[in-house]
Predict the 3D structure of the following.
Amino acid sequence: MCLKTPLYDVHVAMGAKMAPFGGWDMPIQYTSIVEEHTACRTKAALFDICHMGEFFVYGPNALNDLNKLFTCELSTLAIGRCRYGFLLNEQGGTQDDLITYRLSEEKFMVVVNAGTRENDAKWISARLSPDTKFDEASSQVAKLDLQGPASAEALQPICEYDLQQMKYYTFVETKVLGKRAIVSRTGYTGEYGFEIYIDVEMCKPVWDALLATGVPVPAGLGARDTLRLECGLPLYGHEMNDTMSPVASGLTFAIAKEKENYIGRDVVMKELAEGTPRKLVGLQLTTKQSGRNGQNVLSGDKVVGTVTSGSLAPSLGYAIAFAYVDKDYCELGTKLAIDNGRKLLEAEVVPTPFYKEGTARRKTTA
């Protein structure tokens, strides 16, 4: 049986198409994926992301404990900032990709994926010092993502903090609709926007208040997937899993090269030095028909890779895909094909992100 977010009844009443995702019954679309995608790129879209997990880790040894688990360096993370990284197993496999928020010198919030939440909680809590506290707060915390260039216009009337002061990958503890909240600016769509962490009982009032402004439209996970794919952002379970390290994905910016003694480091460092048999590449197709997860990538008659994600790119007008491809076929401009079981779809290795006009990093007055 799938879990339900606090907004499940709201989604059903709004006519959303619901489907299982990460163990949750989630809205996939309300009107159409393309309409919701376009709204996010041009104005703003509001996503229910309450399925994600939130952990609070605190105590005098919390920093050292987390630093031994995550690939990113947390000792240089300032209060009020957040950082992307990976949780690895002993074999170097990626158990999850996550974002760590530094709330104070000794307190952190870790945001994890829905499908890995339970395993992450067990793995992390079992490896903390006796005096480090672990609070699995996912059932008490609701998360709404407001994304798009007009996001501040919708959120500012109900948020006490001046959103124009917020820089990329920072957050603030403030009030939304008069109640405590954490508001951050990271984004998983490539667009300027905010993540709003609030108590569960405030989820519907905040959702209603944001939609009442007429600025954002509700959007489902279908548009979220096309948005993140266009901007070259990975999805756990597709571009990452617990049998492979993050090196092949090219996300080495989230691996602190000089950092020692985190779980999985030996494997990661070896792969950084020697390379990996396959690499994650972006593929641009010649039509609007795209490959799908698990389909073979070919060079001539030879299978040289596997598609991990694929879709029509609404902002670009053609199909795109992520695929792990043998290292000898990863050069930009390499001509390949995707076998969809009925025909071969012509493709070319191209740089990512595919869509380069996103507003996520735009400068504000800060």
